[in-house]
Amino acid sequence: MPTGEDDLATPPGGRAAAARHDALRRRARALLFAAAVLFGLSAVLARLATLRGMNGAQVTVVRFVLGLAFVTGLFAARPGTFRPRRRGLLATRGLFGGIAALVYFLAIERIPAGEATLINNTFPIWGVLLSLFLLDERPTIHLVIGLLLASAGVFLVLGGGGARLGLGWGELLAVVSAMTGGAAVTAIRALRATDDAPTIFFAFSVGALVVSIPFAIAPWPAAPHAWLAAAGVGVFAFGAQIFMTEAYGALSVAEAALWQQLTPIASYLWALLLGEGIGWKTLAGVLLGIAGIVYGSVLGHRPRHETSREAKLAEGIPAEEP
Predict the structure, then answer these.
(1) Number of helices and strands in the chain (H, E)
(2) In degrees, to the nearest 5, what angle opens at C-alpha 258 toward C-alphas 66 and 14?
(3) Does the pTM of the predicted model rise above 0.90?
(4) pLDDT (tens digit, 9 = 90+) per residue, 107-122?
């Protein structure tokens, strides 16, 4: 029987690995969608907590104290889950992730939240650049186009097409948050070849607490609503972070960053529950963002013969359930 072109492109014995790799990618996209929904909800709850008297560092401390409690409980319930292997890289993920989370809140204290979020959302650019040089991940032109479309949609959602960007300490802090966030997601991608999602989250939580506690010394509010909102941040952000970290085991930094553009869109849509209106520019931004994600996900993958190395790598990536 004649051999088809697809058979020539797929190395012998590679079909099963390629099929498993495709299944892992579909699962990763579903996890990132769920993470975006949860991250968006946690952002709204963080806003409520700050309106009730907590500062950003205090919300961060509550979030990661609860996160450490949850992940430690997971380690106790599933012995062997905590198995750090690349300790230096885990420390790097914790440090950069912690700085990114803290500096983002410090930026919000100085500039409007929409402007800070818009600048912080440039982290995929830094992540893609770092992954290009450190991980040799080269995004396709379709993936780049999809990321640009999704980013433009986020700009419309957050800025309503009329966001004004200045250059002060708040803006500089937001840029630092984006850069360190890009480094953090690059570290996650590298770690997922050897370390599981809960272990990586543990490192992130420790790093975030180390850098946040000194900024949380101010008097804490007594209002129960602030504590309830901050606790909600801890619960939903924990699930979102585990989902996101797990997803980076099967997707490149560029494609994962593309899906993470859903987070600010989800945050805005959750904010509608607080009575915020939605205009035509915001609606157009949501549709444009979704279109960019669909375009990049459908057309952004490389031909199967070019991803055979990734398929082999995927076989060695742990796929523990969060």
Answers:
(1) 14, 0
(2) 100
(3) no
(4) 877 776 666 766 777 7
